[in-house]
Structure formats: structure tokens, C-alpha cells
């Protein structure tokens, strides 16, 4: 884990911390993930940096070998968790695919805000977080992962993303590492 810096215009992107997703069985307790993500959101807001809250409202169509939901999710499934303390200044992205950039306004919003770096947190590490990170990297954003503020439904998938994929897409660290850099660079 080697977190070196936060760009002057860094955004926090919180993936799928919503009622239906956190109710699923996960490798790590979601309460801790939500708390760390909320702490980061509060810190980013305090420093006047963009906070993007992402939820998934439907499953993408298409065949897959593993069972998955396609179409719209039940009422309440996509509701963001109140612990995130959503603010009017937060940008909401509702997606229908794994990644937060696909068929949404996320790229345009970040560029309009002058963002050059994103910090990613949320559920699921190997699905929503990784898909969003891959697109962010391909679009030229610096990517940072607060790895203790994410989890997955599958521990092996979570571990693979953190150990093998994320170091190729950006820098990894803890929530505290990100908070310390925010305080150091914004003091």
C-alpha cells in the first residue's frame, strides 16, 4: 500500500452503499465499510471537494453463466444509506450496469468540476468498484483506493482486486491514509 498524494481537485466516489446491496452477505461487515465511507465523505465535504454517491437501480440485460438480476430492482433497493448523510452538494449517479461511468454523466461531471483524481470506496470490490476504477483509469483519472472502505460478496474476488488489479490501476491505502493526506495537503 503506497498512497503518495491527492491532487488539488480530487473527488470521492462512493459505490453502491445502498439498502439492497448492503443487505447481501459480504466478506467483511458492511457497517465498518459504511462508517469509513461516511467519514471520508464528511472530510471531502469539509474540504470543499466533490462527493459522488453512486447507486445501482437495475441489472444490465444479457446472458451470463452465473445467476444475476436483470431489469429494475424492487422499491427501496437503491435507496442510499442515511449514514452517508447525503448533501445537496453531492452528485448522485444512478447506474444500470456495474461501472459508474457507463451511460451516466459521471465523466462529464468530474471534468466540469476540474477533477483529476478519484478516491473509490464501496461494494462490491470486484464488481462496481473495479469496473468504475478501470474506466476512470482509461479516461485518464488518477485513481486511489481506500481498501478498508470496501468489501465484496466473495472474499477471493475482493482479495484478487486489491492485490492484483488495483495496484495496476492506481494507488491503494487505508481510509486513515486518505484522511491524513487530506489534512496534510489542505491545511
From TrEMBL:
Its EC number is 3.-.-.-. Gene3D superfamilies: Isochorismatase-like. GO terms for molecular function: hydrolase activity. Keywords: Hydrolase. Residues 10-177 form the Isochorismatase-like domain. It comes from the Bacteria. Pfam families: Isochorismatase. This is Isochorismatase family protein YecD. It comes from Paraburkholderia haematera. The gene is yecD.
